Amino acid sequence: MSEFDIAREVEGSRGRYVIRQGGHEAELTYSISSPTMVIADHTGVPDALRGTGAGLALVERLVADARAEGFRIVPLCPFVNAQRRRHPDWADAFNV
């Protein structure tokens, strides 16, 4: 995993993972479709955090939580989907 401190925030059927660093926020947002299905819909990394691995760290955390909590990820977000394709060992966490 990464060296980032990643917070998980959930409000109703929406959630996000966020990295706060140097006054900047990188986030991965998702919708909770059901107790066993989460739709990853957006990943945003500000220019100040680009190239640091922040985006990948957010997806790694989502995959780890999916495995630990028994839900599957629908990778609607292009970045999450690209990372899924780069990591075939994550196939068990995705619903595609």
Question: In summary, what is this structure?
Answer:
With 96 residues, this protein is α+β, with helices and mostly antiparallel strands. It has 2 helices and 5 strands, in the order ββββαβα. A 5-stranded mixed sheet has the order 1-2-3-4-5.
Topology:
Elements (H helix, E strand, L loop, with lengths): L5 E6 L2 E8 L2 E11 L2 E8 L9 H16 L2 E4 L2 H9 L10
Parallel strand pairs: 4-5
Antiparallel strand pairs: 1-2, 2-3, 3-4
Give an overview of the whole structure.
The protein has helices at 54-69, 78-86, and strands at residues 6-11, 14-21, 24-34, 37-44, 72-75. The chain has 96 residues and is of the alpha+beta class. The protein has one domain (6-93): Gcn5-related N-acetyltransferase (GNAT) (Aminopeptidase), CATH 3.40.630.
> Which structural class fits the helix and strand makeup?
alpha+beta
Distance between the termini: 24 Å
CATH architecture: 3-Layer(aba) Sandwich
Average pLDDT for all residues: 96
Number of domains: 1
- The CATH homologous superfamily corresponds to Gcn5-related N-acetyltransferase (GNAT)
**Approximately how much helix is present in the residues?**
25-40%
- Radius of gyration of CA atoms, rounded to a whole number: 12 Å
Q: How many DSSP E strands?
A: 5
CATH class: Alpha Beta
Uncertain regions spanning at least 5 consecutive residues: none
Give a quick account of the main beta sheet: strands, pairing sense, barrel closure: 5 strands, mixed
- Strand percentage: 35-45%
Global outline: globular
What are the secondary-structure elements, in order, as H or E? EEEEHEH
The CATH topology annotation reads as Aminopeptidase
Q: Strand order, main sheet: write it out.
A: 1-2-3-4-5
Tally of individual helices: 2
